[in-house]
Design goal:
It is built from 14 helices and no strands. By secondary structure, it is mainly α. The protein has 2 domains: 87 residues, no CATH class; 151 residues, Serine Threonine Protein Phosphatase 5, Tetratricopeptide repeat (Alpha Horseshoe), CATH 1.25.40.
């Protein structure tokens, strides 16, 4: 009985995968496909579907860990984006995160998975620590994309993990690889926008980086100082302090 039910469930997931792929192909356009390389996204298997249409399909499908896993295994770029939107964060394992992270081959899939799924899992902070010094460009970027996503979405964690994250940022800032340094920059700027105390710490880190001997670190530091000391950010942080008073 159990085997028969398992076979039926497996068949159902396979049918859902085929239906999802057909829906993605139906929404594909030449323009969206040609835009991928224009935005620096290299994907060997891509239909060319806008994120807006992928979000619509995700809402229609609802959450399903099994379907998300099966869609990921197809290797299609848009199917993997869809996976990140429908997977169930509480059921995502540490091993799954490592496996998917090793599959990252462009910044689009890396950032989307971190921003919509990985930062909501119980393993998010551990993965920041585990991935921050990996050799692979997109694995290392994932650490900082995940840290940036946590800075934006995690409303309960205190400052200490983000202070430790600033140390990881400072160590990684000399990495000249384009997608790594942009991920590091993203994390630094979002930590610095989280609250006034972290803003001060992030600005101190940014100023040290701006004076670095490494070109990547200087680029990250100068950009972060400019944003984190901007009138818009200062006003927002002041308003945050006023609300809490």
């Amino acid at each position: 009985m159990t085997s028969s039910r398992s076979n039926r469930e497996h068949l159902q997931v396979r049918q859902q995968v085929q239906a999802a792929l057909a829906a993605l192909e139906d929404k594909a356009t030449t323009r969206d496909r040609e835009n991928l390389p224009r935005f620096g996204i290299t994907a060997t298997k891509a239909f060319g579907v806008s994120m807006a249409n992928i979000h619509v399909l995700a809402k229609r499908l609802g959450r399903s860990h099994e379907l998300a896993s099966a869609l990921w295994e197809t290797g299609w770029y848009e199917a993997r984006l869809l996976s990140s939107l429908i997977d169930e964060p509480s059921r995502v394992t540490s091993a799954q995160m490592d496996r998917w992270c090793r599959d990252f081959d462009n910044w689009g899939i890396c950032d989307t998975v971190c921003f919509h799924l990985f930062d909501r899992t119980p393993h998010a902070w551990i993965k920041v620590t585990q991935w921050h010094d990996k050799r692979g460009e997109f694995v290392k970027r994932a650490a900082f994309a995940l840290l940036a996503s946590l800075a934006l979405h995690d409303k309960t964690t205190g400052d200490e993990p983000f202070i430790k994250g600033l140390s990881l940022i400072e160590r990684a800032a000399s990495d000249e690889r384009n997608f790594v340094k942009k991920g590091v920059s993203w994390a630094l700027r979002l930590i610095g926008r989280r609250n006034p105390a972290l803003n001060k710490r992030a600005v101190r880190v940014a100023r040290r980086l701006a004076a670095s001997e490494y070109a990547a670190a200087r680029w990250i530091g100068r950009d972060a100082v400019k944003e984190l000391m901007s009138p818009m950010v200062i006003r927002r942080l002041a308003a945050q302090t006023a609300r809490r008073a």
